[in-house]
Amino acid sequence: MGLKHKTADLKKRMREAVKGGGSKAIEKQKAIGKKTARERILSILDAKSFHEYDLFVEHAGRDFDMDKKFLPGDGVITGTGSISGHPVCIYAQDFTVAGGSLGWAHAKKITKIMDHAMKLKIPIIGINDSGGARIQEGVNALAGYGEIFYRNTQASGVIPQISVILGPCAGGAVYSPALTDFVFVVDKVSKMFITGPEVIKTVLGEEISMEELGGAKVHAEITGNAHFFAESEEECFDQIKQLISFIPWNFEKKAETFPKKPPKTRQYNIDDIMPTDPRQPYDVRDVIKSISDDSEFLEIHEYFAANIVIGFSRIAGQTVGLVANQPLVLAGVLDVDSSDKAARFIRYCDSFNIPLITLVDLPGYLPGVEQEHAGVIRHGAKVLYAYSEATVPKITVIMRKAYGGGYIAMCSHHLRADFVCAWPTAEIAVMGPEGAANIIFRNEIKNAENPDEMRKQKIKEYKNKFSNPYVAAAYGYIDAVVEPRETRNFLVHALEVSGLKSEKGPKKKHGIPPF
Ligand code: HXC
Fold first, then answer.
1. Which ligand 1 atom minimizes the distance to the CA of 196?
2. Which of 163-177, 232-246, 431-445 has the highest mean pLDDT?
3. What is the mean pLDDT of residues 242-262?
């Protein structure tokens, strides 16, 4: 057979292989708003950049009549490509082929592209749409998952790992995403659970729909398993592209720098954001936008633990990671979930050379039996650990309240912030003036002729002493008191002079964070 015939034969084989599970199965997926696995890859990557590998891999199942079945590509597409010129490795499970279930060859394809990503030191994106371990392949399927989980762990902190959940992901299909850095979900399309509704009904007699058990909203708002929530697959792909623009290819690189752009000060004027009444809340995201290039802010975990805000923006063209208390929700307190959320993000930024900017306005950790019993000590300690451990440039702005443990935890000098500035509105104290006066002036208040009047007087006394940044400034715990409108200048300069910062902790195998 000459080249012409061999080429025709190749094309025929390729046509067969790219059909996936066939037109009927594809239509079923389309009817529920899903793109095919190949369309998903092509929508995320730059046009014509996708190069596919292992198209002709065949499945290894021999039991339960599996040897008679042809599973194109064994239900997963793998390859390399680029996003706005940034190289990435990518794979997408194809639900139309045996429910995207993971057999031995399917797992081999995934682990091969993961190994590639590690060798090339570029991000890996996994599009998950799978019923989990392929039941007919038994222990070989479980082995495949084990190999993936091991690689996820080895790659953690080396290259960015992104998981996109675009279907009903069950069993092992959800643990790999849980080990990666960012998980994206799409409303009505994504589902994640260890055991589905059928098993729950059989074992526990409880009835619940897939959506209520592990739908996109559940993971974006309640469990925190998902970092990004989108209404459609298209919106999700745009979010992935935006994220890729903010992060470096690997832990040895810095994120791409962009031309400097001023914030949109007409929309986000920093002088107008903070209410005059210190008890009134405001949206800290407006502060972030008022100091960020072009007021662009990519929020992560937007709907989970909203009392803290985290995400990426750029200042003078450089990517920064923002951690900010949100006075709009629970007065911005630290609690179990917000501590988890912040600590993990701090560690991400530290792993990938992204300077951290912390905006502080919180009355402390959330008190109460529920929080204590939920382990607020252990979870809250994660924030202390993550900030203390981080060696990237750390810059802190105390805007208003910085009370008690909250003051220390939100990247104070004591946890080795490089620069701490405070606005004139800052209040740095062990606790709020009302609580403090009730404790330290208890006897004076109790024995006074007019206890209410005495309480007011003592609260005022305490406020005069501590409800300002100058006591902390006198001890050098803050480096500068700046007007809000000077904040961006302060940050630009601090980032500039921290450009060569290089710090190493004590020699050890690894620390033991309060996981
Ligand atoms: C083999 C599977 C499969 C699996 C689905 N299919 N899951 N084949 N192994 N794990 C096949 C179905 O038989 C069907 O084949 C096709 O995929 C589509 O599945 P449907 O059930 O028709 O789709 P849908 O109604 O949308 O339901 C999707 C689903 C459901 C919720 C994912 O299929 C399901 O519950 N699957 C099993 C999930 C599960 O328990 N997985 C855990 C595996 S154990 P046909 O030929 O009919 O089209 C595991 C352990 C790892 O993962 C642990 C690591 C820590």
1. 35
2. 232-246
3. 97
**Cβ–Cβ < 8 Å for 97, 130:** no
C-alpha–C-alpha distance, residues 232 and 461, integer Å: 55
d(CA 296, CA 312): 9
Quick check: 188 and 33 in contact, CB under 8 A? yes
- 3-246 and 270-426+468-497 share one CATH topology? yes
Question: Both ends of the chain: CA-CA distance in Å?
Answer: 62
Decide if 92 contacts 129 (C-beta within 8 A): yes
Cα separation, 54 vs 78, whole angstroms: 7
The closest residue, in CA terms, to atom 51 on ligand 1 is: 172
> At residue 377, what is the residue type?
I
Query: In the predicted model, what is the mean pLDDT of residues 265-288?
Result: 93
Q: With b meaning 16 or more CB within 10 Å and e meaning fewer, what string describes 373-398?
A: eeebeebbbbbbbbbebbebbbbbbb
Rg (CA), the chain: 26
The CATH architecture annotation of domain 3-246 reads Alpha-Beta Complex (3.90)
Long-range contacts of 508-513 (CB under 8 A, 24+ apart): 511/385, 511/389, 513/343, 513/382, 513/385, 513/386, 513/389
Amino acid at 219: H
Tracing tokens 């499945």 back to the chain, one arrives at 59
Q: Secondary structure of 136-159 in the HEC alphabet?
A: HHCHHHHHHHHHHHHHHHHHCCCC
State whether the beta carbon of 420 lies less than 6 angstroms from ligand 1.
no
Query: Which tokens hold the place of 407?
Result: 């003051």
Domain boundaries, the chain: 3-246, 270-426+468-497, 433-466
Instruction: Give 299-354 pLDDT, tens digit per residue.
Output: 999 999 999 999 999 999 999 999 999 999 999 999 999 999 999 999 999 999 99
CA distance 398 to 360: 5
Distance 132 CA to ligand 1 centre (A): 6
Q: Mean pLDDT throughout 129-143? A: 91
Atom of ligand 1 nearest to the CA of 173: 52
Region 270-426+468-497: CATH code? 3.90.226.10
- Whole-number Å distance, alpha carbon 103 to ligand 1 midpoint, is 12
How many angstroms does the Cα of residue 131 sit away from the middle of ligand 1? 4
**Is the shortest distance between the CB of 251 and ligand 1 below 6 Å?**
no
* Helices and strands, number each (H, E), in the chain: 21, 17
Cα–Cα distance between 487 and 291 in angstroms, integer? 7
